[in-house]
Design brief:
This protein is an alpha/beta fold and 255 residues long. The chain has eight helices and seven strands, in the order βαβαβαβαβαβαααβ. The protein has one domain: Rossmann fold (3-Layer(aba) Sandwich). A seven-stranded parallel beta sheet has the order 3-2-1-4-5-6-7, sandwiched between helices. α1 links the parallel β1 and β2. The two termini are 24 Å apart. Bound molecules: NADP nicotinamide-adenine-dinucleotide phosphate.
């Protein structure tokens, strides 16, 4: 039976800045047990967790080494009691906006590893470790309109987000048709709207000769059309809690 969710345990990547940090704050305010992952720690999250009596585990690690991150998550989950649980794959990065032919290989590789390889391996670890829990388990992949609409100058990011969308569709099929009688997990790749974060600063600050769409991102900012991270996080968490979460494995917060 479908029902709205109040997860006990939330694993969140990219919790140090932007949308991820706003999600972390709101989850701790709701008293969730949060495992927050990013390369940098945010000491204010520790203080908030103490104030709210919420459990916070903060890992500083580079998701570019996705197998190591997934192995650590599997080990950690094996020590957790069964509970309603969520994995939010939020961390991502952009390469410098430019045609692919001008990209640097190391940077392009990091975009793919952090934005696609890590979510896929973390999802595998999460689904495997929690498979016998019998609880409500959800995977939320933070996608983008750019996974569905191509934009010159952001090929690696477009590939990452299209990949997230399609792996979410495939996993949704696997989890909804369990022949072993176990309760399947639900998964959604959600485009969160356009949010006023460092990523937007990078897009509107890019070299216009190599990234003409920078002007459009500049206009979104000057026209006040960016959502604040707090508001975006509120909408994302409302979506995550929906009874019909997973009915559409690829979705957009803007409806
Ligand atoms: N902003 C928008 O308008 C927009 C629009 C559509 C979709 N999105 C999506 O929304 C999500 C959040 O974006 P945002 O705008 O909040 O981005 P952001 O402000 O740039 O934050 C990115 C987060 O990812 C983490 N991260 C980056 N590289 C990492 C690595 N190698 N290992 C571990 N963590 C890493 C960063 O933490 P550290 O630097 O501490 O590692 C940071 O917490 C992303 O999936 C993005 O694609 C954003």
């Amino acid at each position: 039976m479908l029902r709205a969710m109040n997860p006990k345990l939330v694993i969140l990547t990219g919790a140090s800045r932007g949308l991820g940090r706003a999600l972390a704050v709101q989850l701790l305010q709701r008293g969730r047990h949060l495992l927050a992952i990013a390369r940098h720690a945010d000491p204010t999250l520790d203080a908030l967790a103490r104030e709210r009596g919420a459990a916070l585990s903060a890992w500083t690690l580079d998701l570019a080494d996705a197998p190591a991150a997934a192995a650590r998550l599997a080990q950690w989950l094996a020590a957790q009691p069964s509970a309603d649980a969520v994995l939010i794959n939020n961390a991502a990065l952009l390469s410098e906006p430019a045609p692919l032919r001008d990209g640097r290989d190391a940077e392009l590789s990091a975009v793919l590893r952090v934005g696609l390889e890590a979510p896929l391996l973390l999802s595998a670890a999460f689904l495997r470790a929690t498979d016998g829990w019998g609880s409500d388990r959800r995977v939320l992949n933070i996608s983008s309109g750019l996974g569905r609409r191509a934009m010159a100058g952001s090929a690696s990011y477009c590939a990452v987000k299209a990949g997230l969308d399609h792996f979410s569709r495939a996993v949704a099929l696997e989890e909804s048709a369990r022949s072993d009688g176990r309760r399947g997990a639900r998964i959604v790749a959600l485009a969160p709207g356009v949010i006023d974060t460092d990523m937007q600063v990078q897009l509107r600050g890019a070299d216009r000769a190599r990234f003409p769409d920078g002007a459009m991102f500049e206009a979104l900012h000057t026209d006040g059309r960016l959502t604040t991270p707090d508001e975006a996080a509120r909408r994302v968490l409302a979506y995550l809690a929906r009874e019909d979460f997973g009915a559409e494995p690829v979705a957009d917060i803007r409806g």
